[in-house]
Amino acid sequence: MFKTILIPVDLEEPAFAEPAIAVALRELDRDGGSIHLMTVMPGFASPLVASYFDPAVLQKAHDGVNRHLVEFAARQLPADVAHSLSVHQGHPAERIIKQAAAIQADMIIMSAHHRSRLDSVLLGSNSARVVERAQCSVMILREAPQARP
């Protein structure tokens, strides 16, 4: 049983996080354990890109992403499960690793995205980097192979 489980959520493809949540609910120590859902905002990570946007626009985007994460958590997590949420900017793998350390996660559960035949053999770059660098256990869930015509 794990006390603190971190689950990265791609809000552009939230269904990828659903299997991770199901596993986390099974593996979570219900006596004081918690799930932390996090997401990384796309697009604003680069200082060059961010310099073109007014800080108020960046804050509005952050608030909108946070609302989506809150709604996702409300749909996916049972009311009796302790949880926390966070929204980040930056490179996804780096932010996941930093957040895991910040919350002292003892498990990261994430789904590998497979968008090509090569991806079905290899882990995605974010998954691979998290596995390589995280200081806690990492569980990568692969999608079931799609039937090819």
From TrEMBL:
Source domain of life: Bacteria
Q: Which InterPro entries match?
A: Rossmann-like_a/b/a_fold, Universal_stress_UspA, UspA
Note the Pfam families from the entry: Usp
Question: Residues in domain UspA?
Answer: 1-142
The family classification in the record reads: Belongs to the universal stress protein A family.
Q: Provide the protein name.
A: Universal stress protein
- What organism does this protein naturally occur in? Marinobacterium rhizophilum
